[in-house]
Amino acid sequence: MKNIKWAIAAALIFLGSNNAYAEPIAKLAPLNSFGKQAFAAEGKTEEDVRSDIPSSEMVGLPAFPDSYFAGAGGDGDSIDTLMLMSKADSAEVVAWYQKKLGGGWRNIPDLATEQLGEVAVFVKTDKKNISAMDSLKYQQIRISKVEKPEDTGFAAMMFDVSGIRSMINMTVKPMM
Description:
The protein is α+β, with helices and mostly antiparallel strands.
């Protein structure tokens, strides 16, 4: 009987130590024909691409509801940057983050880059005003308005961006 208890305890520890399936931070944006060809050339199926989407836990920042994953950058299992897209209007996205982020985050409009269509830049800092250079020391969430497919940047090369109205670019690990 004692051996059975140890065997059950060992099995529970083993099962608990395996990586449990974690929900991806967002659903994969629909691939366009070039995106499908590019991933196929790498030997990846659409399901492989979906399984590579980082989880909310890995990113540590909230994703706007019903947003689409459009890319991430980092080394190995580390996520430095993340790009999401949404069919929601940028004002709706900004309002959601304003409510969701709470303490420790500030919207610093002076950091928004007009040429990129940015309408808000949330920075995790207690400072009221920081320079663009200083902002590189902090986590950020930048929200851009999308008016035409080109406004999505490189995402339009791989993904079907029809109906996309907002881009959400996250700096998970500060650059400095």
